[in-house]
Amino acid sequence: MKKKISLTTVIxxxxxxxxxxxxxxYSFVPAGYVRxxxxxxxxxxxxxxxxxxxxxxxxxxxVFCSLVCGTLAIDDTKQLGKVGVKTxxxxxxxxxxxxxxxxxIANIINPGRGxxxxxxxxxxxxxxxxxxxxxxxxxxxxxxxxxxxxxGTMLQVIFFAxxxxxxxxxxxxxxxxxxxxxxxxxEIMMHMTGIVMKFAPIGVFCLIARTFAELGYDAFVPMLNxxxxxxxxxxxxxxxxxxxxxxxxxxxxxxxxxxxxxxVMGFAFSTATSSATIPLSIETLDKKMGxxxxxxxxxxxxxxxxxxxxTSIMQGVAVVxxxxxxxxxxxxxxxxxxxATATLASIGTAGVPSVGLITLSMxxxxxGLPIEGIALIMGIDR
Length: 382
Prior knowledge:
Structural class: mainly alpha
């Protein structure tokens, strides 16, 4: 029986095919009605933008339901007392550090420099006005949560979802129907996300073909720089930041830890899903590291929900990459917003492949960047 080709592989093939198609149109097909009107601004534009709009459609309900459900799960901190609170604060801190590392590396390497997306940027992309740090903080609290949900003001949506989840968790058995509605809503949104992602190869092919048909060969080097930036940031977070925390808080030799946890890390890498590694992580901690299952059975699933540092790194680098590609400057307030949004968004990112690309559009919207840039990185995300 032949092994089924994974969606990730198909998306990557679509990226390469779209690149070659775009290069062929750029190099060998003369400008005119067929190339420019029918293909570039016709078929490729309609299918590509249709996929982008389908992704946008999912962002608000997916993040809102996932955040409420994730916060409901955090109610277990009552059983573990200070351990739970410290664990949650530690996870949020490492995620914020991951975004800082990603932004720093991206600004050193400048992966988007030399890629001029401005000439294919569409008129409907609107850049929000930069506001001060104090105004950004106050703007997190929504005046009208329904208006925030309608407009997709994601920091406000995140704040309201966290608040609602905490209240529902504290009410416990007094409210049984509402939490069930959100859990079922989360399942529905995850299924819808899976359906939309099945069309990702078509969307990526059309978006990338259109990009290369407009830009020619200029997009290759920046994309390689993007990959390089993400890999360096991931390595620093895993081998430097985590290992310093491990040595500082526990005194455990980082090399011995990495050796014992290599199977778990290999499994996580091959599946690209943190949720699937939960049982193996708990078993490894118990048998090889001597960590109580009472502790690991709480901290590991919680980490798989709120500690999406890899996704946050990808989003941090992607923000700088896309901003540079579209010739937009980010202020200090924008970077603070990205750190806050990516950190909080990690709570609402399910531990399955490709969902981080959906929530990336939320991070881009928070600082007024066009989400069309996602197409450039979707095929090479894995």
